[in-house]
Design a protein that fits this description.
Structural class: alpha/beta
Strand order of the largest sheet: 8-7-10-11-12-9-13-15-16
Oligomer: single chain
Distance between the termini: 70 Å
Radius of gyration: 31 Å
Number of strands: 17
Number of helices: 16
Length: 478
């Protein structure tokens, strides 16, 4: 039967040329004119290369993650006496981190290359061809004088490199995961010493993060899923973002990949984005999934699908979900109060007097080597007393504005840092227009006793003074 199939196929190909006849009518002429050969650039290129290199094996790919020219582990040299067609583009660079404002980029339209990888010498041919109305595809052909195994291993190495991060953060936006080196650079500046919180609150905060990753076996012994969600709420600019940056930096350094979601909106809809996000998180677990501004990410339309991904039938083992919101009251109860979704809740409220004093001491230490600025301990108390209801952002603005004002004063103008700082505090005080009352759902309900041998697994909530907001189930290590 197989031979018959081959013979029939050969007969068909043989008969096709003879089917042509003299065009005698308009219909015949138009049919010939409107008919065209079937176009398949990959098949045509493969056929041509096999004829040129009959003793070589060939492996081909159009997957951008397997593109050998983007793989730093291979040496690629253009072949002599072989036309190389490229197109140039321009990539602007950040003025703060690059010596030049931009560089030219090169994309190969068609070209052949010698490729050295490990102990192998291979041949690489790349071609670009139109796809659809305005797109293009890129095909790579790797030839080896021998088996195709070296080419396959090379492409596997390319794929592993492509899916790894190298001083980058995975960022999801507009339906795609992309690597962001700029965000990685930004979080490297974050440090726990710059997170001004009471020691009790900060230790509980850190323990929830690092304790989760260290307690996989405990979760298994207790027969509960190894996953947890932490929700950080509070007014703008009270430490949520700097805390998240520090968590992302430190978890990345410990080998737990941080994933950052900018938006679920995409060309394929929110549900597609959510599925893509959680699939990536499950693939890289144990990892940290950061969802900033949950009240904006989750809407009435996509909430049900999100809850199913977060706490549905599919397991999220090893997944630490960190969510933030400036508007706790806008969250659906399925997110804000339902157990097993966001088990720990932390309120980043406006700093109280002790925290304002800690922040003033933070600046006192930063400026201690500046001989032109006098920052006595008495100024710490003055600042703490004068900044009631100031957020950390307002406090920072007071110090930065004072330093900028001092730097701009004429040399003959004598003004102390203390007087300028207090003037800036008075200016900000007049601008301050914030509600004085904390909502009843987020008032404190007593102190949380901490034990170094205890793991908090259950519904937990703290404000930034280390006070318990919600009931908690405490499970102790035996």
């Amino acid at each position: 039967m197989e031979e018959g199939f081959v013979d029939d196929w050969a007969d068909l190909l043989t008969e096709m040329p003879s089917a042509k006849k003299e065009n005698s009518t308009f219909y015949d002429k138009w049919t010939e004119q409107a008919s065209a050969k079937h176009i398949d650039p990959v098949l045509s290129a493969s056929n041509a290369l096999r004829k040129l290199y009959p003793k070589h094996s060939m492996v081909t790919t159009s997957d951008f993650r397997l593109h050998p020219m983007a793989f730093p582990g291979a040496q690629i040299i253009p072949l002599e006496h072989n036309p190389l067609v490229t197109t140039l583009g321009f990539a602007p660079l950040s003025r703060s981190s690059a010596p030049v404002p931009g560089v030219l980029t090169t994309r190969v339209i068609a070209g052949g290359f010698k490729l050295n990888w490990q102990s192998y010498v291979l041949s690489l041919t790349c071609v670009q061809y139109p796809v659809g109305l305005a797109g293009y595809g890129t095909q790579s052909f790797i030839l080896h004088e021998g088996s195709e195994e070296p080419a396959r291993q090379l492409l596997l190495a390319c794929g592993l490199w492509s899916e790894s991060i190298h001083n980058e953060i995975w960022v999801f936006n507009q339906g795609f995961w992309q690597k962001d080196g700029g965000l990685w650079d930004s979080i490297q500046q974050a440090d726990w010493k710059d997170v001004i919180l009471k020691d009790k609150f900060k230790k509980a905060f850190q323990k929830d993060i690092y304790g989760f990753f260290d307690s996989e076996q405990l979760y298994k012994d207790l027969g509960i899923p190894w996953k947890v969600g932490c929700l950080y709420s509070g007014a703008f600019c009270n430490g949520k973002t700097i805390s998240l940056k520090t968590v992302m930096k430190t978890c990345d350094a410990r080998g737990y990949t941080p994933l950052y979601v900018k938006s679920f909106q995409s060309f394929a809809g929110d549900e597609y984005s959510m599925r893509t996000v959680f699939n990536k998180a499950r693939q890289l677990a144990p990892c940290v999934l950061v969802l900033e501004d949950l009240d904006s990410l989750i809407t009435d339309r996509n909430r049900s699908f999100f809850l199913n991904e977060l706490d549905g039938l599919e397991g999220n083992e090893g997944l630490l979900v960190l969510g933030t919101t400036n508007h706790f009251d806008r969250l659906d109860p399925g997110l804000s109060t339902r157990p097993s979704r966001f088990d720990r809740k932390y309120l980043f409220d406006d700093p109280d007097r002790d925290e304002r004093a800690l922040y003033a001491i933070y600046w006192q230490n930063k400026l201690k080597n500046n001989e032109s600025i006098s920052f006595p301990d008495t100024l710490v108390d003055k600042v703490a007393d004068a900044t009631d209801r100031f957020s950390f952002a307002y406090l920072k603005e007071a110090f930065v504005s004072a330093l900028v004002t001092l730097a701009g004063l004429d040399e003959d103008v004598q003004s102390s840092f203390s007087s300028v700082l207090m003037e800036q505090i008075d200016i900000l005080r007049k601008q301050l227009d914030k509600p004085k009352e904390v909502k009843a759902s987020q008032t404190s309900r007593g102190d949380l006793p901490l034990s170094p041998s205890a793991w908090n697994i259950g519904l937990l909530g703290l404000n930034n003074r280390g006070q318990l907001l919600y009931p908690t189930v405490r499970l102790y290590r035996l």
